[in-house]
Amino acid sequence: MIIPKEKIEDFIPQRPPFIMIDNLIEASAETFRSDFRILPGNIFLENDLLREFALIENIAQTSSAGLASSGLFFGKQKADGYLGGVSKLKLYELPKVNETIYTIVNLVARLENMFLLKGVNYCEDRKLMECEIKLVGI
Amino acid sequence: MSDLKYELKKQIIEELNLEDIQPEDIEDDAPLFGDGLGLDSIDALELVVLMEKYYGVKITDEETGKKVLASINAMSEFILEQKEKNK
């Protein structure tokens, strides 16, 4: 495991209850993977389903943690920045409370402090959402 | 209009999902950012990907990006220059 749940706050700017990632389980040069268990009480649950913006947030936080832990974020440990855009989004399914989602993010391109990443989250073998995000570092 | 410039316009419209804009609406020498087509600096990232995906041309720094992505004319000139270099 690259970053365990207990340390994830050292690498991303979000704080509870907005943290939508547990463990960063892989961070190679261009691919980041994470897991996240949806606990009862998650603020983005509606009728026991995790809403779509939490899935986007999960992809964004996986990206931030992956970039920071790989040293791609200008060598900074914490990836401070903002989500500059979301595009090519396809929503297939919303996961349920107590399920665990797995997320894979690939770094598509980088230009100075801007990163284009493609993320997909899964629950078991079911694809939940895919999209591209633009992260801008500050 | 040259085929390359027309293709670039079509690709920009498609990649950036610019609704209600046709290739004919984009002037060859008009700025793509700000007052011209109205793109912002974050859109530049997708143009960088477009240049590599369709033309195998890499833009790795902001300074080159500003120059090369200034207009359709600048983009096409850069693509042709790079092709000539790699001959």
From TrEMBL, chain A:
Pfam families: ApeP-like
InterPro entries to which the protein is assigned, alphabetical: ApeP-like_dehydratase, HotDog_dom_sf
Descriptive protein name: 3-hydroxyacyl-ACP dehydratase
Organism field: Paraflavisolibacter caeni
UniProt lineage: Bacteria, Pseudomonadati, Bacteroidota, Chitinophagia, Chitinophagales
Automatic annotation (TrEMBL), chain B:
Domain of life: Bacteria
Pfam families per UniProt: PP-binding
Protein name from the UniProt record: Phosphopantetheine-binding protein
Domain named Carrier: residues: 1-83
Keyword Phosphoprotein appears in the UniProt entry: yes
Keywords: Phosphopantetheine, Phosphoprotein
Stretch forming the signal peptide: none
Species the sequence originates in: Paraflavisolibacter caeni
